[in-house]
Amino acid sequence: MADRRAGAAHSGETLLFLTDEQLRQGIEAMFFAYRGFTADPDRILSDMAYGRAHHRAVHFINRAPGTTVNNLLNILGVTKQSLNRVLRTLIEDGLVESRVGKVDKRERHLFLTPDGEALEQKLSDAQRARMRMAFREAGPEAVAGFRTVLEAMMDREMRYAYTRLKDSGL
Amino acid sequence: MADRRAGAAHSGETLLFLTDEQLRQGIEAMFFAYRGFTADPDRILSDMAYGRAHHRAVHFINRAPGTTVNNLLNILGVTKQSLNRVLRTLIEDGLVESRVGKVDKRERHLFLTPDGEALEQKLSDAQRARMRMAFREAGPEAVAGFRTVLEAMMDREMRYAYTRLKDSGL
DNA sequence: CTTGGAATGTCAACAACACTGACATAAGCT
DNA sequence: AGCTTATGTCAGTGTTGTTGACATTCCAAG
Known about the structure:
3-stranded antiparallel beta sheet
């Protein structure tokens, strides 16, 4: 049973047997790694009144300044009530600015204030430091594979959002 | 700024520049991929009165039958109160059996009942199906890289738990 | 044998983050 | 004018996590 072949794939000269065991290792690796991935920002945020949701909002506003609430909603994949709670506190605390749209006045365009940028930097630095260590330790070929597999694991809409962000950022 | 070199690594003929931009792409890939990773089991669980925490408990009990509560606590990285709430409902619902230890009667050894195994199968099948698709699509070399990077991203204790599970399962 | 500590379980309170449903407002579109 | 879209808000609920306090059981060391 431990050696049941659940699938196989060809690639050049190598044969990969996708046994349940190998898939399970991938699943567990994903679980443990994600904990590490969020650990550093979580530590920083726990000192403030903020959580992971604030981090995500700040990250993507920094990534795409002037983004609308609706756009952010699609990227984050949460309800507007959930996002709004987070945005409200960030705006109240002067980390995010919400400007009424010029062409469409219903829309709110979101920007980080200097304070918001400072927080984003602090959080990103911590998360990037770990990512950098992992990338260095693993090497460039592993990094390429890492990204290939992650992309293949995304839902279609997520992959679209991801590549759109990726290409805009270049 | 977009091309600031935050680090570089050699590997054969390839040069990888760890720019902030590349690291950010890795971060976003991780974020979006994890959503896909948990999406299928979450859908199944939302119909029941269970959540992701139940999935994790059931997964690791299945992975290491007879594990103690304390051991599970270390793997999952939550408080005993949090785990206990989850375990209690699973035991009440007849999915998990808790047996008093023979050598140390303070310890409780956890096992899945047939019903518990059925749920585990259902959840694992969904999650493995996605992992299998991603692995197939990405190819064996990418899979190796994927795992290498994930391992490098774990905290030390998590890496230990991961390799222990990995080696025991072979 | 007594005492200390470890493993476990339980109760209560609370916070973060998600959800649904309902409703309000303003603005754009036909 | 009427429908739709974008946003915000209120109220309620659920899952998952936290702390703190306390009880029980049992091993092990003095």
